[in-house]
Structure formats: C-alpha cells, structure tokens
Amino acid sequence: MQIGVIVEKFKNKIMINGFENYTEKLNEYESLELLPEIKKILSVRIGENKAILSYDIKYLLITSGYENITTPRIRKIINHIRINGLIVNLIAGKKGYWIEENADKRRQYVISIHQRASAMFGILKNIEI
C-alpha cells in the first residue's frame, strides 16, 4: 500500500483507540480559537533555530488569556494543521516544531517518517488477529 493511500485512509480518523481523550476530533473552541492562534505562532517559526516545543506553545497561549489547554491537545491541533496542509513544510524534531525551507533537510525528514512507518508496519506483520 502506498503512503499516499495510507495517509488518505487514516487522515480523517477521529480518534486512536486507547487514546480517545487526546485524539478526539477538535472541538469548537479548539477549531475556532486555538487553531488560528497556534497557526500564527508556528507560521513565524522558520528554521530549526526558531523551533518551538508544545509546552512553550501552551505557555504562550495561557499568558495570552486562553484557558482549558493541555499539551496533548496542542499536539492534536498541530497534527490537524500538518495533516491538512494548513502550514506547508511544518516538521518536528527534538527541538520542537518549525517550518523547514531547506529541501535536503525536508527530504531527510521524509526518509525518517518512512523509516518509522516501515518499522510500525513491520510490527503489524507479526500481530495475529
């Protein structure tokens, strides 16, 4: 199965089994209030040296007056941004999230994603259901 087919198959999956509280569909507050603000925060993070962690995003939101924010839900919102292409070339690493302009670094990131996905599919081959 090609990666594009896999992505489309699971793109709109609302929740991940066992992690429903963290992965449920964005609620109205998250969609209308937090998502636009997180997009603003991430849109200026161009280059790895400008990376920002989800904890730091949470701090910025709280100090701006937003409430009822958890780090897992921030990651869910960022996942929504990434899966739906709301910010192009938004990647993640140990330093946090940033927009990568360098094509070679993006290529290395894509290879890393493929390797992680391949490792997960390797596990699936050996699970009996």
Describe the structure.
- The chain has 129 residues and is mainly alpha-helical.
- It has one domain: Arc Repressor Mutant, subunit A (Orthogonal Bundle).
- Helices cover 57% and strands 6% of the residues.
- The chain is built from six helices and two strands, in the order αααααββα.
- Strands 1-2 form a two-stranded antiparallel sheet.
- Strand 1 and strand 2 form a beta hairpin.
- It is globular and about 50 Å long.
- The relative contact order is 0.13.
Topology:
Blueprint: H1 3-11, H2 20-23, H3 28-43, H4 54-63, H5 71-83, E1 90-93, E2 96-99, H6 103-124
Antiparallel strand pairs: 1-2
Taken as a percent bin, the fraction of beta residues is: 5-15%
Radius of gyration: 16 Å
Number of helices: 6
Judging by the overall fold, what is the CATH architecture?
Orthogonal Bundle
Main β-sheet description: 2 strands, antiparallel
State the total count of DSSP E strands: 2
Overall SS class: mainly alpha
Mean pLDDT across all residues, rounded? Answer: 89
Write a concise synopsis of the structure shown:
With 129 residues, the chain is mainly α.
List keywords for this structure.
129 residues, mainly alpha, Arc Repressor Mutant, subunit A, two-stranded antiparallel sheet, 2 strands
